[in-house]
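Subject: Sanity check before I submit

Could someone independently write out the structure tokens for this chain? I want to compare against mine line by line before I put it in a report. The sequence has 484 residues.
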Amino acid sequence: MEVESGRNGLTGRQGTSLESDLRGGRPERAILVGVDFQVRTHIRRAGVEGARAAVRAETEPDHPAAEPLRTTAPQPGGPSTALDAEESLAEFRELVSSAGAEIAAELLQRRARPDPATLIGSGKVEELAGVAAATEADLILFDHDLSPTQLRNLDAALPCRVLDRTQLILDIFARHARTREGQLQVELAQLEYMLPRLTGRGKSMSQTGGGIGTRGPGETQLETDRRRIQRRIDHLKRDLEGVRSVRRQQRQRREAVPVPTVALVGYTNAGKSTLFNRLTGGQVLESSRMFATLDPKLRAIELPSRRKVLLSDTVGFIRNLPHTLVTSFRATLEEVEQAEVLLHVRDAASTYGEEQKSQVEKVLGELEALAKPRIEVLNKIDLLGEDQRRGLAGADGSGGAIPVSARTGEGTDALLAAIDQSLHSDPLIEAELRVPQQEGAVLAAIDAGMMVRSRSYEGNLVLLSVTGPASLVGRLGNYRLRDR
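---
Independent answer below. Compare away.
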């Protein structure tokens, strides 16, 4: 496959962006293929044992094996958090819509195990080819990652382009990247994904090979492509290291003034950007489409204690998030690593919230951020009925989640109070202050950064009883009477 470098990576039959390949101005028509390889081996075993039990029931009625056999295995871990095939396909449908494609048809394949050559088996491939021809589809999207061999075989057997789940997510990221940093990160992820999927004879055509069958006419197009891609990957990594260096310098300047950072994390489309705008008064893009936010945003907010914190909006996570994206977006996700408190925003109206929660925690584990203090935020309660709202208290098993509606603002005061209580880097202390009335700047700083519990006057002095951050109280040492 011949490739060329572009802003968002490579273009070619396997690497074409959905956005760049429209037919006569209309969206591309896509066929969605869902797969289900969750085999219940205990049911198959139950079928064999059930046949034996039936024979024993006739010949040995008193034999223990003649008792009715259970075909449902026990669930020691409680209810499963995994998505079933239909739910997974529904989520994949949202991804396809976010990519701007039009769904022409959907197929769901259930198999005992993946076919190593085509993932879904030769019979299903023939059926898929017929559906693609009948619907005039432009591409076929698999809700599963394809190996290089599977991708090559499917590409040869089907009449239109084939993309897997990771390629689709990468395409969505490419569409939504706006800053130079975001574009660099997306391109790096695309190239690292594509590099092992270039096809050709490789070393057997290399002029540097040795031995029978390894000497060829010279370097192949495949080797040229690989070398060009590797050079570009190395260049992108150097550029992103420069971005990380700038971020470290910015963080060091911020740390000179102790302002803690609170990071929003959560599943894609959980409402993080809407909540960010509600708390900060910002104008970050709010969209129901997945991965609308790629570039981190930082805004200062004031807590009930008058303390200031920086709130960070980050990229959303998703089930089976490609590892190349986690690696490439390391510079962006450093805000999560450096945050003092994480706000885990969850969609309270989602039917598979526990699965989403486990996937977010999986990515946080990769970022080594699971040990950080986390506040569970159950968003979108405005979409719930009264009975569902009453059930939220026990939805997470601890009753510690904060129900909010980022759309209406309901519950945000309780959330700000919870953030206030969870911060430990600049704790609140109570103090008694005595400030001359002519020190207007000092009095203004107290009113702006502390909670004044009482105020009285004694001659030319203002006596204040305050609660405020230790850093600010410490700077007023000349005016302190005593701490409480």
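---
OP: Matches mine. For the report I'm noting this point. The chain has four domains: 4-38+82-176, 200-242, 257-422, 428-483.
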